[in-house]
């Protein structure tokens, strides 16, 4: 092992005041990386998960649901900048619809749930050093969100990027912040422990946590799921959805043949030659939503027993030190997925929920859907579908939010659409409607006039 590389990385982390649990976890993964571990999960080592319980089939006592909700904290991952969509601040500050950002709608959901269930229901954000200030400033307009004795956020840890050649910490004087990276959302557990927030929550009487990505507005506080989780007595549970042809890239749960334990396999953990198995929605019929339910006491006990190192599977992420400069030195980012903790807890389980609990925004395709009339935002902050969701595919000019908003200042009506594809550079006017399967093509920049009804294949002239 390159003792010098690990020593330099630890020294850099301590100088930056990274918590000791996070340093222990990083050291664990460094040793795996140095030994040549890839983190791959081979198809012949797992069986597909084919019969999880269905939320629609579960009977949940209303009183038990209320009691579970009263001891549940809502944790949202809020560390991302949305750089793939051209953003340079917290992604969850992006306006979704009706003048509200992700954070506005999350706050609305939590406050409505408090009123409905007469419970404290804290909101807790896992921020990064890049998102914390802007986020807390944005939430200042909701002073009622604070719960006595508990913070609104805790910080995700950071770790040094490692040079692919030699596994020593990368240096980039042009922008030293690029020498650091987040450890993936598997950092949730050491960050909760190292910040002291885990103990604070338990001491304040909270037993369960509902954890989800901040850009998934479907994962609102849900007493029925909370009641089901409490009734199982399980230490950990994952929410799944049934896969369609559009969900082939999402991670999935499987059953490890060696011991019958549930495990999570993400895209980065599948060998390239086995991607046909991974993307087969019939072989692996359910995908992992990254909505998790945790028994906080079980998490604390597991972390204490393992000295802060849950031992989640390694994800080896290869990039360049400056993501915008492909010629900059190649680096390895050591990551883990929070959903992989399912294999740590004996008795962990999963449940298949409705698609309404999975409404993420990873690209402007999904952003267009949420801004369209497919959804309405109710008083509780729930996005309620008004029609079946059409497939949306926007061309490269729409990839970045700024360019997307220039070309689509108002979302067209999609309630009568089956699919909507845009090829080329097209600007859409107001009150445009899409009917059936529509493909709009333009060989040069073109405009769709106000009030246009689009049907079939549309070829535009400049």
In short:
With 462 residues, this protein is an alpha/beta fold. It has two domains: 3-357, Spore Coat Polysaccharide Biosynthesis Protein SpsA, Chain A, CATH 3.90.550; 364-460, Hexapeptide repeat proteins (UDP N-Acetylglucosamine Acyltransferase, domain 1).
Task: Give the CATH architecture of the largest domain.
Answer: Alpha-Beta Complex
Count of separate DSSP helical elements: 12
Global Rg: 23 Å
Which consecutive residue ranges, at least 5 long each, have pLDDT under 50? Answer: none
Write the CATH homologous superfamily of the largest domain. Spore Coat Polysaccharide Biosynthesis Protein SpsA, Chain A
Distance between the termini: 61 Å
Number of domains: 2
Which fold name is given in CATH as the topology of the largest domain?
A: Spore Coat Polysaccharide Biosynthesis Protein SpsA, Chain A
Strand order of the largest sheet: 6-5-2-10-14-11-17
How much of the sequence lies in strands comes to: 25-35%
Q: Which sheet architecture does the biggest sheet show?
A: 7 strands, mixed
Task: Explain the layout of strands and helices.
Elements lengths: L2 H13 L4 H15 L11 E3 L13 H9 L1 E7 L16 E3 L2 E2 H16 L5 E5 L4 H8 L13 E3 L3 E2 L1 E2 L16 E2 L6 H8 L1 H7 L4 E6 L9 H10 L3 E7 L9 E5 L5 E4 L9 H4 L7 E10 H10 L9 E6 L9 E6 L13 E4 L11 H8 L3 E3 L5 E3 L5 E4 L6 H7 L5 E11 L2 E3 L4 E10 L3 E3 L4 E8 L2
Parallel strand pairs: 2-5, 2-10, 5-6, 11-17, 20-21, 21-23, 22-24, 23-25
Antiparallel strand pairs: 1-12, 3-4, 7-9, 8-16, 10-14, 11-14, 12-13, 15-16, 18-19
């Amino acid at each position: 092992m390159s003792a010098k590389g690990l020593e330099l990385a630890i020294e850099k982390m301590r100088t930056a005041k990274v918590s000791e649990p996070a340093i222990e976890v990083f050291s664990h993964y460094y040793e795996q990386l140095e030994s040549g571990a890839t983190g791959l999960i081979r198809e012949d080592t797992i069986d597909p998960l084919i019969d999880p319980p269905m939320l629609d089939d579960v009977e949940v006592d209303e009183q038990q649901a209320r009691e579970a909700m009263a001891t549940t904290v809502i944790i949202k991952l809020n560390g991302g900048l949305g750089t793939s969509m051209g953003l340079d601040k917290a992604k969850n500050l992006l306006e979704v619809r009706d003048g509200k950002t992700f954070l506005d709608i999350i706050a609305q959901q939590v406050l409505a749930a408090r009123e409905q269930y007469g419970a404290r229901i804290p909101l807790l954000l896992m921020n990064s050093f890049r998102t914390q200030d802007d986020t807390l400033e944005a939430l200042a307009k909701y002073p009622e969100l604070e719960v006595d004795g508990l913070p609104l956020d805790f910080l995700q840890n950071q770790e040094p990027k490692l040079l692919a050649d030699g596994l020593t910490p990368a240096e980039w004087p042009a922008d030293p912040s690029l020498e650091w990276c987040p450890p993936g959302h598997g950092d949730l557990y050491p960050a909760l422990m190292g910040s002291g927030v885990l103990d604070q929550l338990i001491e304040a009487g909270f037993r369960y946590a509902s954890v989800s990505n901040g850009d998934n507005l479907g994962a609102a506080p849900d007493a029925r799921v909370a009641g089901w989780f409490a009734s199982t007595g399980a230490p950990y549970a994952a929410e799944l959805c049934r896969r369609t042809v559009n969900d082939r890239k999402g991670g999935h749960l499987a059953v490890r043949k060696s011991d019958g334990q549930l495990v999570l396999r993400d895209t980065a953990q599948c060998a390239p030659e086995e991607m046909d198995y991974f993307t087969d929605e019939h072989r692996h019929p359910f995908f992992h939503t990254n909505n998790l339910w945790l028994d906080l006491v079980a998490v604390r006990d597991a972390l204490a027993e393992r000295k802060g190192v849950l031992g989640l599977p390694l994800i080896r992420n290869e990039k360049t030190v400056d993501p915008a400069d492909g010629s900059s030195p190649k680096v390895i980012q050591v990551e883990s997925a929070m959903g992989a903790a399912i294999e740590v807890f004996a008795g962990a389980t999963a449940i298949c929920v409705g698609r309404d609990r999975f409404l993420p925004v990873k690209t402007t395709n999904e952003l267009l859907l949420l801004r369209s009339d497919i959804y309405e935002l109710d008083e509780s902050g729930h996005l309620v579908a008004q029609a079946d969701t059409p497939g949306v595919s926007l061309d490269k000019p729409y990839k970045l939010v700024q360019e997307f908003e220039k070309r689509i200042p108002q979302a067209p009506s999609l309630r009568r659409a089956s699919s909507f594809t845009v090829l080329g550079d097209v600007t859409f006017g107001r009150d445009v409607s899409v009917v059936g399967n529509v493909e709009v093509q333009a060989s040069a920049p073109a405009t769709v006039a106000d009030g246009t009804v689009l049907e079939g294949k549309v070829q535009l002239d400049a």
